[in-house]
Amino acid sequence: MNSQLWLKTSTALLLVMTASLAGCHGGGGGHHNNDTASTPTAPTDPTTPTDPTTPTDPTTPTDPTTPTNPTTPTNPSVTAPLVTGQVVGEVGAGLGGVGTLVSGVGSTLTQVPVVGAAGGLVVNTGNAVTSVTDGVTNGLGSLGTDKNSLGITVAGVTNGVSDIGKGVSSLGTGVSTLVDNTPISQVPLVGGVVGKVTDTAGGLVDKVGTTVTMLGNTLTTNVTSGQLGKATGGLNDKVVVPVISMVENVTGKVGTTTGLGQPVDGLLTKVGGVVGGLGDKVVDTGKNPLTNVVGGVLGGVGGALDKSGGYLNPTTTTGTGTGTTTGGLGGLLGGLGAATGSTDTQTNTGGSGGLLGGSTGLLGSLGGTAGTQTNTGASGGASASGGLGGLLGGLLNKN
Length: 399
Known about the structure:
Structural class: mainly alpha
Distance between the termini: 145 Å
Oligomer: single chain
Shape: flat
Strand order of the largest sheet: 1-2-3
Largest sheet: 3 strands, parallel
């Protein structure tokens, strides 16, 4: 009996202690959680302090189009044409008014009965003159700066051919209507016969003019963008410009060596200014198409005189050129290829007979301030340091 009571009492006490310990453990955990609870999104919201679009927007401080625009400081379109191009350009510009004058005469002529049939031909002839002079001004006038200046010049001529064709067609139209609304057309039988003759003749002339116009248009297209254009471009780039440059380099050396370059240039500039000023006075005084043309021609002549001083007084250039030529015409002219350099080294190998060897010795050292010239011939070569070649080569190398 006593042992059963003790067992029940021990079991009850154990259950009470177990419940008490469980309650303490749960209460302590809850208390801990209450002490450390917080909202995790408030202090660590990444969108507020570290928004990358505000301080590091790359479009504002590093816009590459503002400080590094390459078209402003390095504009390459400042190269001047060759002196010959400048002179021809002035002449072309001076003659530009001639075509305008002729076209004006044709426009007046169209108002005259009968002979007015040829008015269109005269107008388009003036247009042809303008096309040619424009081609000269824009073509040969750009020698040294445009790779197909020769093609542009030829295109001016072919445009002139088209203009002439239009003029012939205009003449044909004029002939077809020559007797219309005239007393002849009112004469029975005669008027009909004459009208048919003029219509037929005018139609034939018109067809000729149309053919000529088509020919001119075809040539113009071909010379600017076709095979003919490639041919003129190659001729311009490999023959015309190099040869003219060579000549201008030689004349410039002569002017510099003799000391005549600057005085002659100054004189030509003054004379050109006087002639150009006279042209301006003619235009201002006359104020009619004829005096405009005369004044324009005088202005062109004055401008050409001014620019021609550059042949003996060229613009100073510096650089280094090296040329090597072997035999033939190359041995004769090769040394001139580096004439724009301030320091040139030229080696030429000539054939037998000493002619080309001596010639390269004579001409090869025209290139620059300090030239080194060596010539080798099978028989009788001449170096720039001796003989006639050395004399003229050394003379022309002085500044």
